[in-house]
Amino acid sequence: MPTLDVRYTFRLAGDRIEVFDIRLDTRTLEIEGLASIEAPAWTELDFEKCPNCPLDASTHPHCPLALAIACIVHRFDDVISHDEVDLEVETEHRQVATHTTSQRALRSLLGLVIAGSGCPHTAFFKPMARFHLPLASEEETLARAVGTYLTAQYLLREEGGEGRLELDGLDAVYREMQVVNVATAKRLRAATKADSALNAVALLDMYAQTVPFSIRDALADIREPYEDFLSSS
């Protein structure tokens, strides 16, 4: 089965290198073959289970999101959030390299892996994983989220559904993700001694909190590039 491949390479202090090869199934856009450790107790579904989780432990003994990130968390157990790293991200079409903090680099990697984890609440983010943008800014993330949502509404209408331009549905997606992020943070407090992964999730949650409250104001702020097209339409 063809995959979409993304490689994250972290170069840390002391010549330490951590490499993560992320493969997304081209059909399901879920993670394939991410090397993992034996599932730790904090990945069990009923451990700090999200209040909005629709899964049942009888069929899903482990949280799919927690399982997806377990090996990343394990390998960064001794890395502090503000430790500096050289990050390289390789995709089929581009290579990105930067010097940044571990929490910012991990935020980008975890955002990709969480989107493809199979958690029911992250299904919306699969197309964003398909067109992964490493280290995206808040403004870039907002533009991509709105574009993804409106594309989904168009496809829904093409299939006979009720595609809507209103962004209430996008608000709802991010509000559900806030619940997931809070529960994930509780898992990570039990999973790791250091704070790099925990703070990376906190950064993801900051985005999730920002979108419902500021999406319309933020869209007004980025209106300017559209002015010529809007005035000619």
Low-confidence stretches: none
| Average pLDDT score | 88
Q: What is the quaternary state of this protein?
A: single chain
The biggest sheet amounts to: 5 strands, antiparallel
Question: What Rg is obtained from the alpha carbons, in whole angstroms?
Answer: 18 Å
The strand count comes to 5
SSE pattern? EEEHEEHHHHHH
Strand content: 5-15%
Anisotropy-based shape: globular
Distance between the termini: 43 Å
- Domain count, please report it: 1
Helicity range of the residues? 40-55%
Q: What is the structural class?
A: alpha+beta
Total of helices = 7
Strand order of the largest sheet: 3-2-1-4-5
Question: What can you tell me about this protein's structure?
Answer:
The chain starts with a strand and ends with a helix. It has one domain. By secondary structure, the chain is α+β, with helices and mostly antiparallel strands. Helix content is 46%, strand content 15%. The chain contains 7 helices and 5 strands, in the order βββαββαααααα. The model has no long low-confidence stretch (mean pLDDT 88). It is globular, with a radius of gyration of 18 Å. A 5-stranded antiparallel sheet has the order 3-2-1-4-5.
Please supply descriptive tags for the structure shown above.
233 residues; alpha+beta; 5-stranded antiparallel sheet; 5 strands; 46% helix
